[in-house]
Amino acid sequence: MAKVTMADVAKEAGVSKSTVSQYLNKRYEYMGHDTKKRIEEAIAKLGYQPNFLARSLKQKRTSTIGIIVANIMHRFSTEVSRSIEDFFHEHDIHAIVCNADDNPKKEKKYIEMLRAKQVDGLIIFPTGKNIALYESMIKENYPVVFMDRKIEELNVDTIAVNNKESTYHAIKHFIEAGHEQIALITPPLTISSRIERVEGYKQALSDHNLTLNPDYLKSVEIPAIQSELDKMFSLSKSPTALLAGNDLVLLEVLAFLKEKGIKVPRDLSLIVFDNLSFAHISEPTITAIIQPAYEMGKKAAELLLAQIMKENVTTPTEHIFEGRLIVRKSSEGYLFSK
Amino acid sequence: MAKVTMADVAKEAGVSKSTVSQYLNKRYEYMGHDTKKRIEEAIAKLGYQPNFLARSLKQKRTSTIGIIVANIMHRFSTEVSRSIEDFFHEHDIHAIVCNADDNPKKEKKYIEMLRAKQVDGLIIFPTGKNIALYESMIKENYPVVFMDRKIEELNVDTIAVNNKESTYHAIKHFIEAGHEQIALITPPLTISSRIERVEGYKQALSDHNLTLNPDYLKSVEIPAIQSELDKMFSLSKSPTALLAGNDLVLLEVLAFLKEKGIKVPRDLSLIVFDNLSFAHISEPTITAIIQPAYEMGKKAAELLLAQIMKENVTTPTEHIFEGRLIVRKSSEGYLFSK
DNA sequence: TTGTATGCGTTATCAC
DNA sequence: GTGATAACGCATACAA
To answer: Span of the secretion signal (chains A, B) (predicted)?
Structure first.
């Protein structure tokens, strides 16, 4: 029965609604000490709870922002969301997280739903398939920040990691350890981050005079990875090093290696592009390219808030962060003697 | 500028607001075909988007429910939330997830915020520290379902797993493999699920004529676990088997074992109480007690929906699900010969 | 310092 | 079949 309203409080306290409203918005400056007290008592007595909806309707501001994550199963997404929430929490803004599940239809639905609910802005890990929708938001000057994936055609604040360079670095690490048969597995090349990772891979190979073997470079859906690996490791010359394009790819790779009895790093050197909860404690520990999720989330939040507040209105830009290669056991000690 | 409103559409179509409203709510039964067409065109032309806020204010129903998770870092929480979201999605109800971070203050804040936003109901993984708040919601007949933790004093729908029996089962599994020095580590005993796990542990020991060694039973905060383990494994008789009370405990345990070079299962048998992303692929694979997260989430959602719809108003009850012990390598092959 | 009137964008109740 | 009109709960000029 949260049906006790401001009018009830006003009546109980013997004042008008406006005065109660003043009180709630902490404009006590010109309020009689006595009035204030009576309102306080009335609120306590009736157990009054303000109705945010009504307030938002009037103010045209919900103090809520939305985060649309491409796939909540990635640890990176979780970390970024967490960081964004923390930031907005300090500004008394509520963040609500939706999972598009890598599905453009769901993404569209969530964008529309959140906008219908009048959220003040959106941080999106775009699937990249709803260009028209993205464009309309930008054209309307609706506050938006894109995360993790760049959409070329769009003029919008975007946060990303230097995918190409980071991948280059990892592949170079393999090459310097003596590897020549280096594989990369990613999900389909539908978004910039994956495309850039492939570019970094190719660049690293060519810069070190290694020819690209198409059998070693696969971009397929997660459920298809194991069969793709099966082909790859049935080749007469199978890879000696492998970069997993993200954490979900890695899980598939590990499952495959376990089943086939392929040992890391003895039989295969391994690196994963992403943050992982167990990279430091698995056996062996796993070399990883880490994205600064916390900083990236914070930056996205700052940019969005600026747009919402219409302060520091900079022209939309890309903000690129650096990935860090954490070398662990999975990429060491490969036996070239064999 | 999503400022195009129903009035604009009405004017554009040359009809009244009421008629537009009818149209939007799909009550075309008594509507002229021509009118309908004109409204459609007007909406398309102006790019009208309905305002959910205004609708909710009027209807006293937001078609939104809240999930307050104790700690989003647990995989179990994620799985349950996902299941709840899926269920409500089918009923065109939006679920928003908040993370209390095991912090009663945050929990309170979120409950109040969500209620102020007029969400239609709440599914809570309670910290257990806001009893008065829980009571007030129940007394007001506000739709609530509790998850994972029972609060004795409260008469409310509650979903949980049979913690005691599941733990008993796991400990028995250790005992039958010949173990006598069996440890259990949990976070502090502030909630029913942890208390019940300890009860199951004690019961299993006593039923098998093993005496309880207090050095083997520790309930401490996550950051204190490693030092506690350090003490435990410095004992003259250190444990030969260990049950990690949840997934976060396990991560600490694994980190400790790795540092100390203690090998599983050779030096120590290991079981974890919880769902884990990598239990089946780690080296060794990890024996786990699995909670049926999907079913539990679904049940919680069903109960909440019934409360919201005021249908099937059953008296609040506990719904207990069964944990399943998945035996893997980490609890096999301990060498008792040494 | 406090009260009155009006509007935010919908939906609901009736007339017409 | 369609259209006034009054809510929903709050905030905000402006008056008093």
So the answer is: none
